[in-house]
Specification:
Blueprint (H helix, E strand, L loop, with lengths): L1 H14 L15 H5 L3 E7 L3 H12 L3 E8 L10 H11 L7 E3 L13 H13 L17 E5 H11 L4 E5 L4 H9 L7 E7 L17 E2 L2 E2 L18 E2 L4 E2 L9 H4 L4 H5 L1 H12 L4 E5 L11 H9 L4 H15 L7 H13 L10 E12 L18 E3 L7 E8 L1 H12 L35
Parallel strand pairs: 1-2, 1-5, 2-3, 3-4, 5-6, 6-11, 11-14
Antiparallel strand pairs: 7-8, 9-10, 12-13, 12-14
Helix pairs in contact: 3-13, 3-14, 6-7, 7-10, 11-12
The protein binds 2-acetamido-2-deoxy-beta-D-glucopyranose (2 copies).
One 2-acetamido-2-deoxy-beta-D-glucopyranose binds next to strand 14.
Length: 455
């Protein structure tokens, strides 16, 4: 801890004005020394169930050296519990020493929130895994692993201190990264590549922001003029202007199911996506995005999850994975999204992708794209809402992005469970009192049939 304080102090001393290039604290390693990995990694996420699945994969993959887990506050995880949930999951995977930071509080372009009820259900799932839960002790609380720094500050610190360029994986609305780079643009110099989960780029009709997400328990308000101030799921309906104006139906009067042409992570913070592209354009870093279509045929279903769990040699992980699948499936549409993005990332970085057998089966390469921030409430027949669209645009202030448009479920599943099974240390030793319910049957590892999924 003393070391950390000294380092922080040194950063402050070297600081100077905002955005200036600072002297690295440690001599960077040569390109050759950094070439083969393990690559330092920042995992920025929104603490949903698929982020937890992604974390399992990252923890089991020795090619990554996880430096920070930064939690978005405007995605699925609650701002209060998302970070401690991720800290507990990291500890289960032997990564309890990785700092976990609370995210920047609000979207930079608030328009929508995930229904509060769904977010609380993620917390309820994690709580069930703590000592005394129905499955015995699966997770332990690790509040001391929460960083004293905010997510953007932690991102900057990792970028500044790393002796090799850092890989950044973001699987939520990219707000933390963008707040970090807005305050310290030069920190981006030490990024190796950025991998992002989101957008409905490239394939018409892959919008996944729906009207039914705007309402919970019959109460509107997930999408409103004043977004984050109106995320209550409780009656009575939200009324503005002394009872005269009710929150409009749908999303500011539009049906997102019919008119949307975007994806949840982008929609949560359209401006953050736009700014991320703007900032990264200056550096020529490679950016890879897993678009919504790529995971369209990869739902998280119980058959796959139970088979995957059965292939694991760690009981606590087995129970965790099966229970996570149940909790995740309770919240409507559930896909491998973030975990798929993590596996795609490894495929790109370690040449599996180049060999044609990665988790991405079809790429739209080197696309310069703009992020549309214009809202229009009156659309012609069949016209889509521009807000949140990402389209080809040669004039965009954006880097060349490789978009993954189609997944390869078979290689995704094989690679995923193989790496998760590497996880060795899971905190304290099991005791007889842990009282595991061992309902998980050992079956053959992932028959191909289990990968044909219903939608
Ligand atoms: C966890 O506990 C519940 C309640 O006892 C049980 O139904 C479930 O099968 C258990 N899960 C696993 C994966 O053993
Ligand atoms: C979108 O995904 C589906 C399902 O995997 C696939 O059949 C289709 O070819 C994909 N589209 C593109 C453009 O890759």
């Amino acid at each position: 801890m003393a070391g950390l304080i000294v380092v922080v102090f040194a950063v402050a001393l070297l600081g100077g004005t905002r955005g200036q290039l600072r002297k690295p604290l440690l001599e960077p390693k040569s390109e050759d020394e950094c070439k083969h990995g393990p690559y330092p990694l920042i995992f920025d996420n929104d603490a949903n169930c698929d982020d937890m699945l992604a974390l399992l994969y990252l923890a089991g993959n020795p090619d990554f050296d996880l430096k920070a887990i930064t939690v978005e506050a405007d995605g699925m995880g609650t701002p209060s519990s998302g970070p401690s949930n991720m800290a507990a999951v990291a500890a289960l995977e032997g990564k309890g020493d990785v700092p976990v930071a609370f995210g920047h509080k609000e979207s930079l372009s608030p328009i929508n929130t995930m229904p509060l009820q769904w977010r609380i259900e993620v917390d309820a799932f994690i709580e069930k895994m703590y000592p005394g839960g129905p499955n015995g002790t699966i997770l332990e609380m690790h509040p001391n692993h929460l960083s004293a720094m905010s997510a953007p500050e932690l991102i900057v610190q990792v970028l500044r201190e790393s002796r090799c360029p850092v890989v950044v994986l973001t699987t939520g609305p990219v707000m933390n990264l963008v707040v970090a780079l807005d305050a310290h643009p030069s920190a981006a110099a030490n990024i190796k590549a950025v991998f992002m989960m989101g957008s409905a780029y490239g394939v018409p009709g892959t919008n996944n922001v729906y009207d039914w997400q705007m309402e919970f328990n019959g109460v509107l308000g997930s999408c409103a003029e004043a977004a984050f101030q109106t995320y209550t799921g409780l009656p009575p309906p939200i009324v503005e202007s002394y009872g005269k104006v009710q929150v409009r139906r749908g999303c500011r009067g539009l049906s997102m199911t019919e008119s949307g042409d975007t994806e949840c992570n982008v929609f949560m913070d359209v401006r953050a996506w736009k700014m991320t592209y703007n900032f990264l354009n200056k550096w020529g870093h490679k950016v890879y995005v897993l678009a919504a279509n790529a995971t369209i045929n990869m739902p998280v279903n119980m058959a796959t999850m139970e088979e995957g769990a059965a292939s694991l040699n760690n009981k606590r992980l087995q129970v965790f994975v099966v229970e996570l699948a149940k909790a995740f499936r309770g919240a409507g549409e559930t896909k491998w999204w973030d975990a798929h993005c993590a596996v795609m990332m490894a495929g790109v970085l370690f040449g599996i992708d180049a060999a044609g057998s990665g988790a991405c089966a079809n790429w739209a390469r080197s696309k310069r794209t703009s992020v549309n921030t214009v809202w229009r409430s009156h659309l012609h027949d069949g016209e889509k809402l521009p807000y949140g669209q990402i389209k080809d645009d040669p004039d965009a202030d954006a880097p060349l992005v490789d978009y993954c448009l189609m997944g390869n479920p078979t290689s995704m599943q094989e690679e995923y469970w193989e790496k998760v099974n590497n996880i060795k240390s899971t905190g304290r030793k099991l005791t007889p009192n842990d009282n595991y319910v061992t309902g998980v049957q050992t079956t053959n590892f992932l028959s191909k049939d289990s990968l044909v999924m219903s939608s």
